[in-house]
Amino acid sequence: MRFHFPLYSSSSFSLFSDFTFISSLPLIFSSSHFSPFISMAPAFEPLSPPHQEAEPQTATPHHADTVNNFGNDGQVVSKSKVTVVGSGNWGSVAAKLIASNTLKLNSFHDEVRMWVFEETLQTDEKLTDVINKTNENVKYLPGIKLGKNVIADPDLDNAVKDANMLVFVTPHQFMEGICKRLVGKVRGDVEAISLIKGMEVKMEGPCMISNLISEQLGINCSVLMGANIANEIAVEKFSEATVGYRDNREIAEQWVKLFSTPYFMVTPVQDVEGVELCGTLKNVVAIAAGFVDGLEMGNNTKAAIMRIGLREMRAFSKLLFSSVRDSTFFESCGVADVITTCLGGRNRKVAEAFARNGGKRSFDDLEAEMLQGQKLQGVSTAREVYEVLSHRGWLELFPLFATVHEICVGRLPPSAIVEYSEKKPRLSLLEDPACYQ
């Protein structure tokens, strides 16, 4: 027997209780939270202004091969060198943001290397050659100048060899192979940040991409997630993002300085797992929203899907990592990213087409036709989440996540997104309150 939403009432079981959310509401309405329009100060953890080290615009550029500069007091200033590993739509926008700041900040080399998976264009030219000649990624971000200090490099080893700040932004399914190629090739003092939305599922359980990078390369890895549709940031429309960091506040400040611009405000949060899981799981919710759009079910249904999806995101995250903070879900990486991805992201777009075709065309076919080489994340993430839920006996607790995967693989029709099989929640999973603090 099948029932329509809501998937569960507010009294169903304590895992999805909203009391902690309600207690966080005063934080949202503090004046500092709306700081982009007041003082540009971040919401929860104020930092020094992103460009306090900015040089006068008349200053001569730094040379990329210079390791150190001398400050005004004659002291040697160590300069960080940045490489962006990835050159798709979001990777190219990240390189643009970073390159605009390395020219202004005395603590960074001007040059920003961007590793490009080499492709031959229809003109028979190499993509890296065209990027370096035109200062534009003509395939993945046409019409946008990246900055003359962005150097495209098809050689991964060469791109990272001198860098001590690595920005990873590739489809998550490629990251294990990339990490294996980089073992022993990166400097021991490297700091990394992942902009990748996805996770790996191994025999021992789920592995976040930041952990994969840290474990395989022996380096610290922060994360940056948020309501970030790349094409809007590329044309400098105002947006926000969240940096999740572990223990080192100084490293978080470096990443904030490197990414922040007047149109891209970055807020630090000491919650790597929470920030990263928000960025990962919201793509599954966006697939569900796309099904709703494809079936023309209306805005009320879509809003319900988004609300239920956010609750499942929070519950799943806190079951996996008890350290995840409720306040993280009110940052750009949380509710804001759910909203923007369900309204305008590629996962929503392709899922809409899937539903309009009654599930008769595969996601692989639609991806190839609609995304010009870009990759979906939501379908593979839904599969990985389903594997975790199945392995741990949690499928009944997460009906939306489970249903998305079953629709994607053809076991259920797209219309099943507003239905679920009647199953009694397994409250025994939640008997230990400590697991959900």
Automatic annotation (TrEMBL):
GO terms for molecular function: glycerol-3-phosphate dehydrogenase (NAD+) activity; glycerol-3-phosphate dehydrogenase [NAD(P)+] activity; NAD binding; protein homodimerization activity. Its EC number is 1.1.1.8. Signal peptide: none annotated. Transmembrane segments: none annotated. Residues 271-419 form the Glycerol-3-phosphate dehydrogenase NAD-dependent C-terminal domain. Gene3D superfamilies: N-(1-d-carboxylethyl)-l-norvaline Dehydrogenase, domain 2, NAD(P)-binding Rossmann-like Domain. The keyword rRNA-binding does not apply. PANTHER family: GLYCEROL-3-PHOSPHATE DEHYDROGENASE, GLYCEROL-3-PHOSPHATE DEHYDROGENASE [NAD(+)]-RELATED. Belongs to the NAD-dependent glycerol-3-phosphate dehydrogenase family. This is Glycerol-3-phosphate dehydrogenase [NAD(+)]. It comes from Gossypium hirsutum (Upland cotton).
